[in-house]
Amino acid sequence: MPDGTPTRDPRPFDGGHFNAPDGVWLRVRDDYLGGMSATDACRRHGVGLSALRARAAREGWRRIDQPWAPPPNALDPEDEGLKLEDRVGGDLDKVDLCELSFVAYRRMMRAVMRGDATAALRWRQVMRAMDQEEAELDRAMAQHEALRHERAGWAEQADGQAAERVALALDTPNSSDGSDGSNGSDGSDGLDRVSSG
User: Fold this and answer.
1) Exposure string over 98-130, b if 16+ CB within 10 A, otherwise e
2) pTM over 0.70
C-alpha cells in the first residue's frame, strides 16, 4: 500500500498453495458425494484434483456410504438433445439422423468451450457416425428408388409389348375361319367361282 503497511491476501495460504474457503469445500463435497465426478467438481469450484482427493481421504468422503440416488443429469438445460426428445415425445422413430448429428455437434462445441478435449473428441466421433449412417441410408434409398424406376420401366415396356401383340392379333385375320385374308372386294370372291362352275 502507499502508506507502507503490508497487504494481506484474503485467501488462506498453506505451504505454497492458496486454500479454498470452507464454504467452497462444502459445495465440492456435496457435488462429489451427489455423484459428480471428481474432475467435474474440481472444475466447477476451482479446486485441485489432488486437494480434493486428500480432503476426501482425510474427512472420509465415501460415495459408497451415501444412499442410492439416480445420477444427476449433467446436460445443460438448453441441451439440443433434451429439446429434441421433448419435441418428439420420446418416440425415437420420429428423429432423423441429421438431427442427432446436430445434437452431437453442439455437444462437441460445448465440450470444447469447457476445455474437455476428451468429451469433444467423443462427440465428434458420434457426429461422424451419424453422418456416415445418414449417407449410407441415403445411398440405400437411392438404390431402391433406381431399382423401383427400372422395374416400373420394365413393367411399362412389357405392357407396351402386350398391347402391340393384342393390336396385331386384332389386325391379323383368324386362319381358322377359312379365309385367305382377302375381303372379297376385288370381285373374285367365292360366288363367282360357284356360278361359273
Assistant:
1) ebbbbbbbbbbebbeeeebeeebeebbebbeeb
2) no
